[in-house]
Amino acid sequence: MTSITSFCRITEMQCIVDYKVLVHRDAGSEDPWLKQIYKEQEFVYPKFHKMDMLTQAGVLACELIRRARPGIMNYPDDGIALLFANCSSSADTDLRFIRSYDQGGAPSPSLFVYTLPNIVLGEIAILNKWYGEQMFAVLPKFAGSFYTDYAPVVMSTGAAALLCGWIEVVGNKVDVLLFLVEHTADNVLEFSADSIESLKQQDSSLSDLKESSTYLSDGYIKGGS
Asked: Which 8-state DSSP code applies to residue 120?
């Protein structure tokens, strides 16, 4: 059975992992929202501070899933495929790059590195030493069916697990959902378009979903009916 065994949802105000709110945004903090999560979760990765926000969001969400499901590191280095998407590509960094050119007379090399959205996949792969198939798509809008349709494609080379992501970061807008798909005999959250759509709604209906969801003894999530 193919199931969603863990997920991370980051919105503009909170960071949720497997139905638990880990971090609430401190509106009075001088730190940007993603840096608040980084510090509160005691994540130590100096390169994080050189990344653009799109990549920071992906690396953070991946790290939180890895902590929730440490068994993910038992897969061989080509055993995890990555399937990510968004609808604004790297627009946030593209605009910063243009402004650095207009205001400074020369574009910033540090920004140029991140003017492709799939850089986040490379950073996650480097950090975790995951060398399976990767795909980043730019879509008109979020669609749970995209992941169920393309999962067989990126897993066709033999990957045993799949890390999926929707990472939309533009200005103050933060809309992130990462989830781990594994083969398991346990009755956990089904890998389906409807399940993915329900996880995407976590920010607006957290309390309802918490009430209708339970945890299995081994830590797997289980969606409510």
From this structure: H
CA distances from 184 to 2, 76, 144, 189, 204 (A): 6, 17, 20, 10, 29
| Secondary structure of residue 29 in the 3-state scheme | coil
Non-local CB neighbours of 143 within 8 Å, separated by 6+ positions: 193
H-helix or E-strand containing 58?
helix 53-68
Cβ atoms within 10 A of the Cβ of 68, count?
19
| Tens-level pLDDT at each residue, the chain (225 residues) | 699 999 999 999 999 999 999 999 999 999 999 999 999 999 999 999 999 999 999 999 999 999 999 999 999 999 999 999 999 888 888 888 787 777 777 777 777 777 788 899 999 999 999 999 999 999 999 999 999 999 999 998 889 999 999 999 988 889 999 999 998 877 689 999 999 999 998 774 444 444 444 444 344 455 433
Tell me the two tokens of residue 20.
Answer: 């638990």
Whole-model pTM: value is: 0.86
Using alpha carbons only, give the angle 88, 94, 100 rounded to the nearest 5 degrees: 155
- Assess contact for 179 and 7: CB atoms under 8 A: yes
Query: What CA–CA distances, in Å, run from 196 to 31, 179, 224?
Result: 31, 9, 13
